[in-house]
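Justification of resources, computational component.

The compute hours requested in this renewal are based largely on the per-chain cost of generating structure records like the one below. Each record pairs the submitted sequence with a full structure-token output. That output is archived, and it is also reused by downstream analysis tasks.
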Amino acid sequence: MRFPLYITLLIFFCQSNNLFSQELTNVIVAKDTIKKTIDPLAPSKAAFYSAILPGLGQAYNKKYWKIPIVYGAMATSMYFYAWNNTKYHDYRDAYKRRLAGYNDDEYQYLDDSRLIQGQRFYQRNRDLSLLVTIGFYILNIVDANVDAHLIQFNVNDNLSLAPEIYQTDFTTKPNLGLTLNFKF
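The structure output for this chain reads:
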């Protein structure tokens, strides 16, 4: 009785091996299109390019819309530096002429203490404009570096942070909160 059962199982397994031994010629393989290569030197390159020429790091990161902002900020602060420097030298030259005994300058309506006060005011604003220009230059380098770091991150809908307004159960007043959603 066991013998026919063994023969039946043997025939069944032999036939099933033929089914699995076939080769597939037209196989469709799905490619992962989101996968990017990570260049660990990209942030340092972007920072280096921005240090050489402001805005070049933003162009390297392909954020072209930031270049006019960089140049606008730096040009504005440099304009105020030049204007305050000119006014400082005008007040200083007028004060020096007063000490030499001349009274034919454009600031005849000011006394000596006001000329000194004007010098200090424009000198302080000139120095502050220089610090703002240097700050914008450093901010340009930092922006290029951080942006190059953030380009390499995969941002998709699986991770989202969104504001949410909900009502409190007891007071029915609206509350504002943040929800963090992470989908596996």
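The beta strands are 159-167, 174-182. Residues 16-21 have pLDDT under 50 and may be disordered.
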